[in-house]
Amino acid sequence: MKIINLIFGLIVITSINYKSYACTCIGGKRTIKKAFKHNDIIFYGKVIYKEKVLFDFIPTSRGDTIKFYKDKYTFMIKKVFKGKIKCSTIEIVTGKGHGDCGISFKLGKNYIVYSHWEKLPFNPYLLKQKRKLKEKYLDTNICTRTTMKIREELDKINKYLAHRSWIYYLFRRKNRE
Predict the structure, then answer these.
(1) Within a domain: 156
(2) Does some domain include residue 12?
(3) Under DSSP, is residue 93 helix (H, G, I), strand (E, B) or coil?
(4) Considering 19, 47, 114, 151, which has the largest number of Cβ atoms within 10 A of its Cβ?
(5) Where is 15: in which H helix or E strand?
(6) Residue 8 domain-assigned (yes or no)
(7) DSSP readout, 110-139?
(8) Strands 110-119, 41-59: parallel, antiparallel or unpaired by DSSP?
(9) Is residue 155 assigned to a domain?
(10) pTM for the complete prediction?
């Protein structure tokens, strides 16, 4: 009987379909080199707008839903360090904090933002609803090097970019000979 209960319990536990939105920053903040390698868009900008957006939701057995929100910030671009931005503003999505690694940006403040492309999770319940997020969006979180410490980070970025361009110059020169 104990074996049957154990098997039944394992079947129930493994068949539960749920999503989890939690945060872990294994290894702490990345080095500049790794940050440039693992992020798609890196820029310096000012927060000019904030909007709360529905990210995902899960229907419950009681007929109600558990909703997951994120914040979408609009930045006015001052300088781009990596990636191509075709206009003067950019939208960045981040969690709301409280365990989801989100960053609470302050309106009117300047930041250096390290962001990467993400895709929205597929949710058949949201197909009929109009989302305020595009299917592919730029995301950032507390595990990146995103910061308000502009001077310190600019020094590190400029040093890294100068070193990288010097190596590129030497490599091209050697290959031409």
Answers:
(1) yes
(2) no
(3) strand
(4) 114
(5) helix 2-15
(6) no
(7) EEEEEEEEEEPPP-GGGTTSPPSS-SEEEE
(8) antiparallel
(9) yes
(10) 0.76
- Three-state SS for 21-88 is CCCCCCCCCCCHHHHHHHCCEEEEEEEEEEEEEEEEEEECCCCCEEEEEEEEEEEEEEEEEECCCCCC
Domain count, the chain: 1
- What CATH number is associated with residue 50? 2.40.50.120
Look up residue 15 and give its two tokens. Answer: 């068949």
Per residue in 139-158, pLDDT (tens digit) is 999 989 999 999 999 999 99
How many other β-carbons are positioned within 10 Å of the β-carbon of residue 102?
21
Cα torsion 6, 9, 13, 14: sign: positive
Q: 159 Cβ partners below 8 Å, 6+ apart?
A: 32
Is residue 78 a contact partner of residue 46, using CB atoms and an 8 Å limit?
yes
pLDDT (tens digit per residue) in 75-108: 999 999 999 999 999 999 998 877 778 999 999 9
User: What is the span of the domain harbouring residue 130?
Assistant: 26-176
Distance from C-alpha of 70 to C-alpha of 98, rounded to nearest angstrom: 12
Provide the residue count of the chain: 177
